[in-house]
Specification:
mainly beta; 11-stranded mixed β-sheet; 6-stranded antiparallel β-sheet; 2 helices; 3% helix; globular
Length: 474
Amino acid sequence: MGIPVTRRAVAGATAGIAVALATALAPAASAGVHPSTVETVPVTVDGSNQSGWWNPLAVVDGVTYFAYNVPAGTNRHEVHLASRTASGEWTSGCLRLATGACANYLNDNGHNQPSVAVDGAGEIHVFASMHHEDWNYFRSTMPGDVTSLVEVSEEMPDQGSTISYPITAVGPDGDVWLMVRTGPDAQARRDGVLYHYDLDTRTWARETVVASATNYSVYPDDVTVDGNGQVHLLWEWHAWAAGPFRHLGSYAVWNPVAKAFSDVAGGVLPTPIRPTTPGPVVFQPFTDGETMTDTTPAVQTAKMAIQDGVLRGVTYRYASGDSPLFDLEWATWNGTDWSRETLIDPPSLGSGVDTVAAMDATSYGSKTRVYGVVTLQTCNVTRSQIVMFERADGRSDWAVEAVGDPMLGQQRLRAATRDDGTDVLYLSAPATPGGGTLRYAEVPRSGQKRAGGSLAGILTGLRDDAGGCATAAG
């Protein structure tokens, strides 16, 4: 039986803040421009419930699905799935093995996290806890029923493969698409591979190798299928075999009918794509002195916004120069070249400020949004705040507002847009004292015309909220 939850309203922007960091006055964000609704999901998540690449969120026919890790012993977790009806009722269940027991996995931050998809027949697909190992794949036995997921890993092709970073998307025909990294290490490669679930035949097949090159590893970032069935893909590169600081953020489109790739300008690309493939594949090229093995400059995680089959932009985390701090960046294609701009520049916001490898982007109507996480470390304690940037077509400036309350520790997120334009957010704060929290947020696109906002003001509020070392430490 589902558990009713009362929503807790949170102002869409930090109200009453007029003091900028350090010295100057900054304009206060417009409170209530798009008033967010935020509620805490009645679950406790494991400390491992955090990643940058995953897709733990699906919104289908008014129902929201959250996949998440819960504590299950020392340094271990179970993977659970919860659904929320439009009226706010939650129901949850675990992923079950053939024995009937809940699947139990080793914690592995940044790797062993779940991705979910709901196909056109309402069947729920979950890929979980794979870091360079064989498939862990579960599917519901009843449409829409989060309590009926059972393991069907044997149905996946390429059995015995070493799989990491499963990212899911669903097409307009209800088929499911999956991008993963496989590890043919004997050939000194780790490839980006695309798989396809055909709803008519209820079977999975390998679609194509997206990106591959000897002495390189691929890191999948995002998959989106547009209304025409074109599959949009994001990934990064690293020198084989692995590393947390990646390079050459890349974008391409797969045409399932023509069985061919194209770049952002429509040019035909070879299969598979390589780091040296000509054309505008790379949205974040090497900067001066950068190599494939550098710690900085480096890319970490990327997400994209697609509207009407067109890429609106890519948001990603990038450390430039010798700085260990990561900016939040936004890249767009202007018809000739990639254009890049910085949304969050930590050094300009004062000491202790950084970002998290968690972001997303949505586009609906005339407005594009980027969601990111800004952190502030004071008194050896990290606090974080979800921040939304919104820009209307034809404008160059971004309006800024906070979403939800500040939280202790890092936060992770994903976003999906409902048919009415409202964004639904998955917000995980795994380090919350007393147990990690999972929050559900709605950010509508209706509301008064905004007057702008102040990222500096939001950071000032985050500093004030810490309230001194004793308070900041909880």
